[in-house]
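thought: fold this chain, then report.
action: predict
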Amino acid sequence: MNRYCTAVFTLLLAAGLALPGSVLADDPAPADDSTTATSLVANAWESDSDAAAPQQDEPTLDVSINGSLRFNALFRSYGTNFEEGNDRVLGDGGFTFDTFRIGASGSYGGLTFDAEYAVYPEAFGGLFLHHGWVGYEFSDARQVQVGVSQVPFGIQPYASSSWFFNSTYYVGLEDDYDAGIKAMFTPGNWDIQGAYYMNAEQTDFFAGQDFSRYSYDVAPVSAANYQVVPGGNSLRSDITEEHQFNVKVGYTFDHGELGSTKIGVSGQRGQLQNLDTGATDWHAAYAAHFQGRYGGFEAKLQFAQQELNAPLTDSERSAFANQSDVNYAADDFVVMGAYAFPQRVAAEHTVYSSSLAYRIPVNAGPVSQIKPYYDFSLVTKNVDGWNDNATHDIGFLTSAGPLFVYTDLNISKGHPFNHPADNFASVMAENNDGEWRTAFNINIGIYF
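observation:
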């Protein structure tokens, strides 16, 4: 993919969104998920009158401070075989600090902004930016964002309902954030988004050189704090993401009092760069997605495939192949990570993701709603002998004003948050043991 064509195409898309309202047909009412901040309509006009043109009111700066404080009570069972019932006693957990986030959002006329900074335990990456962008609204249905924004791919904001997320997140295809420019066009029931990302979100000046970040990306293996490549990390060059293009198209069918159905497709293509040699190769993904809301019931279904081609050298491929303890090639995986933890991810994989939930109004003291849900995801890989990743998550969300409590029972094989440390590096690749494990988690969060 030519990086310059990608950049030019995206800038042209942004320019199209910036056209004055008089050039395009009048924008219908925005879709349910469109932005509704103050709009600015450009309208150049001439008049023979000597009277001064009418003056618009001066815009004002509106700022809202927001954030969250969360804690986890996590318990995990690492028995030898869940199906046989061995070692069902919950252990390896405790009551711990999860995260503190502080952010701000606001507008000044047509200008908008949104940013959030995250504080995690040092073991999970410490301090890093969750997102931060500056935007401009040309109308209620046309907006551009520049900065670290959510990548337009798949069901948003989340393809899952649980605190653990589905497996789409752990291969970089759910709630992903990168640095670049995004344009959104939401006429009527349509949701059309396009973006160009120069690189992944940065945790330091040099384009995300470590794994301390919120969302999963391909990142340099030299930043790993443990051996993530069989035979040693020195067998692999530093690979990073760059020049990524995204497009997403969705349409919402309004069923009146019954609810709504939204269907869509997403595509993604970019480059992987070898920082040691300068060589590049491509990565790509696509998805089809469905989201239905019918009364209190919600259903999310998504199918996605991804291919990541690391630009390795011939000597790296040869050195990896000469190892006696591996039976796959150096090209069969890439190194991705977040929260300061890298892991091997299958270079070609398919992700099946689903989520069913039901909102139940409650009037019990401060509790206003309980939402039970069931999430399921499956990752299959294109390497013979590699185990699938499968996750069942049964739980419910309890809402009481600013208090949100997630209660989850996670039954999975190959889930990064429910996997022992000695096999963690392989979890999204060969997934060595393929055993079922259980985790019970309660996440308590105050959101303001």
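thought: worth noting. DSSP finds three helices and 20 strands in the chain.
final: tokens above.
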